[in-house]
From TrEMBL:
CDD domains, A to Z: OYE_like_FMN (cd02933)
InterPro entries per UniProt: Aldolase_TIM, OxRdtase_FMN_N, Oye-like
Residue ranges constituting the NADH:flavin oxidoreductase/NADH oxidase N-terminal domain according to the UniProt record: 4-337
Protein name, UniProt field: N-ethylmaleimide reductase
Pfam family for this entry, one: Oxidored_FMN
Top-level enzyme category: oxidoreductase
Alphabetized GO MF terms: oxidoreductase activity
UniProt keywords, alphabetically: Oxidoreductase
Tagged with keyword Ligase: no
UniProt-listed Enzyme Commission number(s): 1.-.-.-
């Protein structure tokens, strides 16, 4: 048996194996951000993972950046998530909710009253936004006023409370992939001159206030993880920070004060490459962070085994492989081939290409 498929103790949780289902936005929620009934099947079928991280979930209407993504601010959303967590638990799994604010990676068409997306600074991102009327160029966001920032911290607090009510086992704070928290952390996207910009300490002020609020809700950091992507260039091709080693080194040190359960890193650029520039050091992050370390990006069982043997990570998250292989752990165990999901199924649509992928021995049976 591969050591990757053996149990792992993560804080006070016992994971069946070291396989984590990475967060995967699938854009199947209603326009009100309510996950569909068939999300229960989708997540329950994947309860073979040691831990599931849900798709990124908007903390407030202002946080929305993509059409048909779920939220965790309304009672209807909480009720729908309750069914999902119950489905995962009935099948022996564990599930954390990923808390999301997209910041500038948004568009007026997905914002309340068509308002401009908000960001630390009024800097337009490259690329396009996914709206109900298709892909549209990003716009220049509105820079947040200093006195608006504590209100967003409160939105995170409420979302964390709602995640608890919805029966999640914990939450993951999405501070990666150039969404709002990372926009504050990086000096290319944060040009503020108030206490939330300038020095590293100032740029970390808002993300750390969020971590503080969320850990307060969860009775400490023992059920709270965080996602970081120090090497990402998204949404473009150029590095996003003038000194990622210093910035993320300081971030990790500061996070240690909150007793977080894990750091979930994207090694390289999400989906694109595992190459890491000299300016980023994942070994340093692993060493300096006091909690567990989840590695991600293009992992195979073999690479995970190698990295575990070398002590580079504790847990390994798999994203794309979980789309078309609901029984991924069984396939890894038996060496069965992995199915690949064509891209049109990734974002948007219904149950087709989402909760109807068969396992290697036919439909995946789930308990209800
Ligand atoms: C369809 C799709 C949706 C994704 N949605 C999210 C998300 O909601 N939150 C997040 O942090 N990362 C998201 N990612 C990134 C994945 O979590 C992961 O980092 C990436 O797919 C690389 O891992 P893999 O090589 O195992 O697929 C998404 C990736 C894909 C392909």
């Amino acid at each position: 048996m591969s050591p990757i498929l053996e149990p792992f103790t993560l804080g006070d949780l016992t994971l069946k194996n070291r396989v984590v289902m990475a967060p995967l936005t699938r854009s199947r929620s209603s326009t009100e951000g309510v996950p569909p009934d068939f999300a229960v099947d989708y997540y329950a079928q994947r309860a073979n993972a040691g831990l599931i991280i849900s798709e990124a979930t908007n903390i407030s209407p202002q946080a929305v950046g993509y059409a048909y993504t779920p939220g965790i601010w309304s009672d209807a959303q909480v009720e729908a998530w309750k069914s999902v967590t119950a489905g995962v638990h009935a099948n022996g799994g564990l599930i954390f909710l990923q808390l999301w604010h997209t910041g500038r990676i948004s568009h007026p068409d997905v914002q309340p009253d068509g308002q401009l997306p908000v960001a630390p600074s009024a800097l337009k991102p490259e690329g396009t936004a996914f709206t109900e009327s298709g892909m549209q160029p990003h716009v220049t966001p509105r820079a947040l006023e200093t006195d608006e920032i504590p209100g967003i911290v409160e939105d995170y607090r409420r979302a964390a409370e709602n995640a608890k009510r919805a029966g999640f086992d914990g939450v993951e704070i999405h501070s990666a992939n150039n969404y709002l928290l990372e926009q504050f952390v990086r000096d290319s996207t944060n040009h503020r001159t108030d206490q939330y910009g300038g020095s590293i300490e100032n740029r970390l002020r808002f993300p750390l206030a969020v971590v503080k609020a969320v850990t307060e809700v969860w009775g400490g950091g023992h059920r709270v993880g965080i996602r970081l992507s120090p090497a990402t260039t998204e949404p473009g091709k150029t590095p996003l920070d003038s000194d990622p080693k210093a910035t993320f080194g300081a971030y990790v040190e500061a996070l240690n004060a909150f007793g977080l359960l894990y750091v979930h890193t994207i090694e390289g650029v999400t989906q694109q490459t595992r190459d890491v520039p000299d300016s980023v050091d994942f070994g340093q992050i692993r060493k300096r962070f006091k909690g567990a370390y989840i590695g991600n990006n293009q992992y195979t069982l073999e690479l995970a085994e190698k990295d575990l043997a070398e002590g580079r990570a504790d847990l390994f998250s798999f994203g794309r492989p979980y789309i078309a292989n609901p029984d991924l752990v069984q396939r890894l165990e038996t060496g069965a081939p992995l199915a690949e999901a064509p891209k049109p199924y990734w974002y948007g649509g219904g149950a087709n290409g989402y909760s109807d992928w068969p396992g290697m021995n036919g439909p995946v049976a789930i308990k209800r």
